[in-house]
Amino acid sequence: MRAALVAEYRKLLTTRLWWLLLIVMVGYLVFIAAVVSTTFVFVPDGQEPPLAGEAAARSVYSVVNGVGYVFPLIIGSLAMTTEFRHKTITQSLLVEPDRTRFLVAKVLSVVPVGLVAGLVGVLATVAGGAPLLQIKGDGAMLGRSDVLVGLLFSVVAIALWAVIGVAVGSVLSNQVAAIVVILAFTQFVEPLARVVLSQVDALAGVAAYLPGGAADSLIGASFLGATGDVDLLPRWAAVLVLLAYVVVLGVIGRLTTLRRDIG
Amino acid sequence: MTVPPLVIDGLTKQFGAVKAVDDLAFTVRPGAVTGFLGPNGAGKTTTLRMLLGLTRPTAGRALVGDRPYTSYERPGTVVGAALEASSFHPGRTGLGHLEVFAPQVGVSKQRCRQVLEAVGLDHAAKQRVGKYSLGMRQRLGLATALLADPPVIVLDEPTNGLDPEGIVWIRRLLRQFAAEGRTVLVSSHLLREVEASVDDVVVIAQGRLRHASTLAELRTRATPAAYVETPRPDALATLAADRGWTVQPDGDGTLVDGANAAEVGAAAHAAGLELHELVRRDVDLEALFFELTRPEEAR
After folding, report:
1. Interface with A, mutate which of B100, B128, B153 (most A CBs under 10 A)
2. Do B190 and B236 touch, CB atoms closer than 8 A?
3. pLDDT by residue (tens digit) across A147-176?
4. What residue numbers bound the domain in which A49 lies?
5. More confident site: A161 or A55
């Protein structure tokens, strides 16, 4: 298993795409966090800001997950789909014919990269959102323990997204298909589903079990929370829900893509 | 180093209605280079993929020694295989590619450099594989196969895209592997490509075994022959009988087996025998191979 892990880790480090994605992620998050912070800081006279104080800060910082999660998802999915796109899967399975071990190693190997993405993403978000909050708003709140814990769990959430990405890639081994589905799901399907579900009392709780809802629960704040009330799960439950997505998708990938003949 | 043979036993692969490999059976012995021959689409690559656990057989089995490839803990240390020249990540360097697969065959980064040097790619170690020529990719594939210095070597069409110098180089390498006692299986769609380097030949077509023997034995089937037209076939028959050649009527003339056209011409000239036509009819290795791999319905 150790050898398989080292091999998978080297596969990531010897390609460039993931850090190009990280650079884009940083630029995007700085921009989005700054934009979101203006909505709390520049409020027309006579109106209340949608959120204030610590809640405003946490909402701004939550964009690292709420908006940024598409990046680790794609990075993770690329780790798997690249094998099929460039047919390196042949050589990979020649040296590791145990396909379950191959998949598990692949899933675990993105954790370090995911943590780096999380750290970089959190720093970018704070860099983009904190200045305005500090200068014109109620403060950047970076001394508050709840805010810091939220940021810490954001790093974990981003790493988990990378892991989920690998599992998605194992189900959708076609690189283009995987990216299209990830973009469609994260940018359209899930946000829409969460808004719709939150309007139906009987289903409001379900939204928290969607991957994005679970990740918001993990960091303890939702970007969507700025516009509507969102039910959140306890942190431990959120982690379990996210890991369940990894396991379910991974098992499907193992029984479909990785069961087939290669070549 | 105990060197396992490769054992293909009743191997069958069905894709829908098509039997890509049909009840194939042969053995590849250690200490020799075996040419795995057949036209494109004969089922060679599918057979190799089943041998290496990438494709599941519909029936039968393929063994490395006494067990399947996939049952080895580190199969890459037992069998070094190079299947296609296109399965590299174009963004990785040649050296990076080898270093990725090094841990699972238990070799160091230093060994990666060493192998890269051995296949003549040390100058391109830090170059991205996307910029490699086909010949360079063949060499990198070979380097990957040789990483763990394995006792069994399986190469699929290794001469494709190689320049003449590279072909000579790979021939020498294959001979060296056999001399070291390794089991070597090399596929090709041309007998000519591997004729100079193989000891044994396994010929398949349409997924079925057509011939398996040593190359020497196949050679004995190749005979010189000449087609002759003469007004005195009886004299020709006597002349041939004196020399141990066989004759048989062939259309308007006679087919002489066991002698080439020059020998028949010289003998006729010496005997004062009048010839009206003298044509080469040698069955050479290439013709024999062509005959062996002809589609079944055309035979």
Report:
1. B100
2. no
3. 999 999 999 999 999 999 999 999 999 999
4. 2-259
5. A161
Interface contact A262, partner B, CB < 8 A = yes
Mean of pLDDT over chain B? 92
Per DSSP, the residues of A154-175 read HHHHHHHHHHHHHHHHHH--SH
Reported pTM: 0.89
Q: CA A71, A74, A80, A84 torsion: positive or negative? A: negative
| CA B100/CA B106 separation, integer angstroms | 11
Residue A244 has pLDDT above 80, yes or no: yes
- Measured CA to CA, the distance from residue B111 to residue B114 in angstroms comes to 5
Q: What is the ipTM of this complex?
A: 0.89
pLDDT tens figures, B161-173:
888 999 999 999 9
Interface check for A95 against chain B (CB to CB < 8 A): the answer is yes
Q: Which of A147, A153, A146, A149 is CA-nearest to residue A130?
A: A147
DSSP one-letter string for B65-106: TTB-GGGSSSGGGTEEEE--TT-S-TTSBHHHHHHHHTGGGT
What does the block give as tokens for B175?
Answer: 């001979």
Q: How, if at all, do strands B183-188 and B32-37 pair?
A: parallel
CA dihedral A76, A77, A79, A80 (to 10 degrees): 140
Residue A175: closest CA among B109, B89, B223: B89
Which run of H or of E encompasses B188? strand B183-188
Residue the block writes with tokens 């990666």 = B112
- Phi then psi for B214, rounded to 5 degrees? -75, 160
Q: Residue ranges of the alpha helices (H) in chain B? A: 44-51, 94-101, 109-118, 134-146, 164-179, 191-195, 215-221, 233-243, 261-271, 285-292
Count of structural domains, chain A: 1
Where does residue B246 rank: exposed (0-12), middle (13-18), buried (19+ CB within 10 A)? middle
Please name the residues in contact with B250: beta carbons below 8 A apart, sequence gap of 6 or more: B227
Q: Answer whether A94 sits within 8 Å of B81, measured CB to CB.
A: yes
Token digits for A247? Answer: 């396991």
Choose the closest CB to A94 out of B52, B86, B102.
Answer: B52
Beta-carbon contacts of B202 under 8 Å, excluding residues fewer than 6 positions away, are B26, B28, B34, B35, B36, B37, B209, B211, B212
Torsion of CA B207, B210, B214, B216, to 10 degrees: -130
Closest-CA distance, A60 to chain B, in angstroms, reads 37
CB contact under 8 A, B100 and A7: yes
Measured CA to CA in angstroms, residue A179 lies from A17, A78, A111, A257, B87 at distances of 14, 8, 20, 17, 22
Q: According to the model, what pLDDT value does residue A228 have?
A: 47
Q: Quickly count: other Cβ atoms within 10 Å of residue B247's Cβ.
A: 18
Q: Which amino acid is located at A65 in the chain?
A: N
For residues A126 and A153, what is the distance between their CA atoms, to the nearest angstrom? 14
Residue B101: which of B74, B63, B139, B65 has the closest Cα?
Answer: B74
pLDDT cut 70: percent of chain A above it: 97
- Which pLDDT tens digit goes with each residue over A31-47? 999 999 998 888 877 78
Looking at the complex, report in whole angstroms how far the Cα of residue B195 sits from the nearest Cα belonging to chain A: 28
R_g of chain B, CA atoms, integer Å: 24
